[in-house]
Amino acid sequence: MNPLFATDALYCTARRPSVTRHLVPDRNGHRFVRAVGDLHHDLEEEASDLEWSELIGRAVAARWRSVIDPVPFSSPDSVTADLLKPLPELTAPLFGSLDTFREELLREMMDARTALLSSNNRARRDALMECVEVGDPESTCVVIGNHRTAVSLGSWLASSSHPRPVLSPREYLHQARGTWDFAVLMGPVSWLGASLVTASRADETVIIQPDWIRDDDEFHGLFAPEVRPTRPITVKVRSVAIPAVEENRPVPSPAPEPEAHPATGRAEWEPIPAGELTSEIDWSAIIRRTRAFDPDDELEMGTETVHRVSARLVLLGGDRAAWLPEEGHAVRRLLPNAPEGERIVSLPLAELAPGMFLLLRANGEGQAVPRRVTDTHLGSKRSEVRRLQADWKARLDRALKSEGPDDLKRRVRNQGAITVNPAYWLTEDCLRPQRDQDFLALLRALGAPEPARYVEAGKFLRSAHSRAAHSLARALEGEAEARDLTQLRVEGHQALALPEFPETAEMVAFQVLAISPDPKSVPSSIVRRPLRVQGTPWLV
Strand runs (DSSP E) across 237-371, as ranges? Predict the structure, then answer.
């Protein structure tokens, strides 16, 4: 369907809700947000330095997550508490080595953290529970913009004997889910998207956010009023202040003062616009911290002439991530709750969403296929194909040792090659250069007789390798069909292996945590290969 008609259909089937914003008193949260902002502002570019990066990363993530997360900090389900609790250990080495002003800012952030934890998130918890308890359990949902927080909130509600669907904005707006009597939106509408109120799927909507965040009171639909047949959409939000609850404050909060704060120039207790606090994942930080399993990836990442594709980074369970090509591809999706034999389906990448499970080879597609399996697919040509492969690789090894990589690259380019990466071509993972043009240029530079024979043998080897990889993948998928997948549901990842082929790369089932919005140009050799994500679980 045309996107404009789809949007019009969404508006036409939407409810016209009563929208109320519940403003939760959150003095300790406000103090922490300001303290983090002041320290971050003072650090500027130093915030990415090694000694500060995890501390500031965790604090910034806790700052925006605390706005939307109603789970009590004392609960094991609280992801915000998981961010806040390690901060003392990270700050301890810094005290005594900073100038007076910066040390005061750091100490204020830590005092604010202590005060925030002492509140146990009672005000936000009570505001949510009041809404949840009055609504029909069968027709009440909670909408939250962060997948990890949504999972923790759903778990906590279930353990509190108030199980309710906790949806992402995308899930909430999906027409297949139908409509609701009551929806609770956690956090500012400008974070979640105006369509949650202009195209609401509920008769009554309550927005829960801290009283110190300033957000719009009026939201407009996509179409102008004069556009027909679409009806003009304008939603006005009515704000209701919730009375404050008594809080324990082991660390006194400063009294409201009219003076401007030295770091920001804003009055100490002035409301903060929602747009100044980001709830977006810091994808640049995640990309900086990704490392491939295979060190050969580093060779290709540093080569300007490698074949590149447009791909999005997908954050996975188990502290992993993978680049997935943007267009024209599908992934193998795993449905853990489906009957055996129906668990694995093909899914277009455009339909991949957080919360789904997918299957990836541990070292990428076609990697670590045992030589003996490939040889069975070579048949009677095995000896000749393997002899020619060993010959050109031996020639390449001698040339690299005798003249060095730079001179060899220059000679190969002079023979007409486009991509030249002899160090990678020499590795066991490389069957032959990707392009025939590059392979022929290499063979001519190496003085190989009858280069066309080597090229044809390389094509046959690559085809056999692909068939072997396909057969192993199907066998590994059979493991996923029959295996108990409890570990996958609990930990977000689970490895699957074939005992008869211990040298085969595992297939791993991963839960999708987040998908980067912007594609990047990356070497094709690292696409679909799980990467380590070092020290960034707090970013999502």
Answer: 238-241, 272-273, 290-292, 308-316, 320-325, 330-334, 344-348, 357-361
Q: Are residues 309 and 439 in the same domain?
A: no
Instruction: Give the contacts of 288 (CB within 8 A, at least 6 positions apart).
Output: none
Helical residues (DSSP H) of 92-206, grouped into ranges? 100-119, 122-134, 147-159, 169-173, 189-192, 195-198
Q: Which of 359, 352, 326, 322 is nearest to 526 (CA)?
A: 322
At position 187, the amino acid (one-letter code) is G
Same domain, 138 and 233: yes
Q: Is residue 378 part of a domain?
A: yes
Looking at the domain assignment, is residue 339 inside a domain?
yes
Cβ atoms of 525 and 325 within 8 Å: the answer is no
Say yes or no to pLDDT of 219 above 50.
yes
Token readout for 525 is 């050799």
Q: Which residue among 466, 494, 519 closes a domain? A: 466
The whole-angstrom separation of Cα 352 and Cα 332 is 10
Q: How confident is the model at residue 438 (pLDDT cuts 50, 70, 90)?
A: very high
Phi, psi values for residue 171, rounded to 5°: -65, -40
Which residue is associated with the tokens 């493991």?
A: 479
Residue 494 lies in a domain: yes
Six token digits for residue 200? 């609401």
Is 331 in the same domain as 377?
no
- Alpha-carbon distance of 420 to 422, in angstroms, equals 6
Statement to judge: residues 377 and 308 lie in one domain: no
- Distance, CA of 401 to CA of 396 (rounded, Å): 9
Domain of 483 in residue numbering reads as 286-369+472-539
In terms of pTM, does the model score above 0.85? no
- Three-state DSSP class for residue 304: coil
Domain count, the chain: 3
Answer whether 32's CB lies under 8 Å from 112's CB: yes
HSE-CB at 506 with a 13 A cutoff on CA atoms is: 12
Determine the angle formed by the axes of helices 382-414 and 436-446, rounding to 10 degrees. 80
Judge if the upstream peptide bond of residue 348 is cis by omega within 30 degrees of 0: no
Query: Which tokens in the block code for residue 395?
Result: 């020639």
Distance CA 187, CA 168 (A): 12
Q: What is the pLDDT of residue 238?
A: 66
Question: What distances in angstroms separate CA 104 from CA 273, 324, 379, one per listed residue?
Answer: 25, 45, 73
pLDDT of residue 240: 66
Joined together, the tokens standing for residue 76 give 């094991």
Question: How is residue 225 annotated by DSSP?
Answer: T
pLDDT in tens, 293-337: 344 444 344 444 567 888 899 988 888 889 998 876 788 888 887
Q: Is residue 441 located within the same domain as residue 488?
A: no
**292: exposed, middle or buried (Cβ count in 10 Å: 0-12, 13-18, 19+):** buried
